[in-house]
Amino acid sequence: MDALRVAVRMDKWLWAARFFKTRALAQKSCEMGRIESNGHLAKAARDVRVGDRLKIKNEGGEFEVEVLLLSEMRGPAAVAQGLFRETEASRALRMKLEAERKAIEAADGYLLAAKPSKRDRRQINRFRGR
Length: 130
Fold this sequence. Notes:
Layout: E1 8-9, H1 10-16, H2 23-31, E2 35-37, E3 40-41, E4 47-48, E5 53-58, E6 61-67, H3 77-81, E7 84-86, H4 88-111, H5 118-128
Antiparallel strand pairs: 1-4, 2-3, 2-5, 5-6, 6-7
């Protein structure tokens, strides 16, 4: 049945492609202007067609994808990944941002250790001359 479809609602497709956990979140994201379709802001009811280029901003990052297949039903992740193809530029940018985020978190974790270990405490006491 899905193969015969020419267009699917934006919020249904985003949900079926697993960019959002619920259709309501996909709809809200459209209302907030986080979804672009072929360079235009997309409303939840806008039709998605095969070949459309979408820019999607969600908690996972910023994605630029090309629509390959249409579906209104949410299925397994392996099937959902077949609905779209992410551009190389988008993938490279996401990987770069992820690496930067991890480096910052690692530096913050090193500098902001919650509590010194017993060995660290002894070294601090020696340094202070106690």
